[in-house]
Amino acid sequence: MDALVIAGKTYSSRLLVGTGKYKDFAETRAAIDASGAQIVTVAIRRTNIGQDPNQPSLLDALPPSQFTYLPNTAGCYTADDAIRTLRLARELLDGHDLVKLEVLGDPQSLYPNVVETLKAAEVLVKDGFKVMVYTSDDPIIAKQLEDIGCVAVMPLASLIGSGMGILNPWNLRIIIDRLSVPVIVDAGVGTASDAAIAMELGCDAVLMNTAIAGAGNPILMASAMKKAVEAGREAYLAGRMAKKTYQASPSSPTAGLIGS
């Protein structure tokens, strides 16, 4: 399968996965191995990556030498808070500059606050960060984030952790058509078919956490998601047949049949 390129770096996997909500770091590692993911997100405010030297660290379970870390600002509700969090992450990860920005609007819906997101993106890009940004499925906002200099735009499929799947494929198609940076569906994926649909639409990748961590068997679901992303990408590249309303087309040749 063709490679995914983000901020000049090439990845063979188009599935990005979160590291939260697993029962322990061992399950986290097993699920991520099954997913084949190379980029893993980590919520700086919720996961120990060196802030507390007396507690187990995710860095031991998922060594940065084996995975690309994507520190995110989960739990931030203002631009200032998000900026401060990612500057801390850069210190903890020895200058690591690839980050995921998300600024939330409220704790109930976790819907993105695009005004604060735009504000934070401008500061972070000027500060030298390579910003992958979670946003709404608004094509205008998505283009503005690209114009600011974000290296990937990540519109939601539906609300974070909802598992509702892709609720507005039409907006996603507009975003895909208008942007030149990678478009990565982030939030709302519930099962493998959701991931496949996102890839069939033309998304460059899919990011998920709860869909895997919240499954009855996270490791098996991670494997299913890996296959779904690969199948969806191949289907997109192959180009689906045209839909024909009220028109059938036989699968077998009709010429040269016996008796015809």
Report Rg. Answer: 20 Å
Separation of termini?
44 Å
Note the run of SSEs as H and E: EEEHEHEHEHEHEHEHEHH
Q: Work out the number of β strands.
A: 10
The average pLDDT score comes to 90
Number of helices: 9
Per DSSP, what share of the residues sits in E-state strands of 2 or more residues? Answer: 15-25%
State the secondary-structure class.
alpha/beta
- Give the neighbour order of strands across the main sheet: 5-4-3-10-9
Main beta sheet: strand number and arrangement?
Answer: 5 strands, parallel
Overall 3D form: globular
Percentage of residues assigned to helices:
25-40%
Uncertain segments of ≥5 residues (pLDDT<50)? none
Description:
The chain is α/β, with parallel strands linked by helices and 260 residues long. The chain is 37% helix and 16% strand. The protein is built from nine helices and ten strands. The protein has helices spanning 25-35, 58-61, 79-92, 114-126, 139-148, 169-178, 192-201, 210-213, 218-238, and strands at residues 4-6, 9-11, 15-18, 39-43, 68-72, 98-101, 130-135, 152-155, 184-186, 205-208. The strands form three sheets. It has a five-stranded parallel β-sheet with strand order 5-4-3-10-9. The longest helix has 21 residues, at 218-238. The termini are far apart.
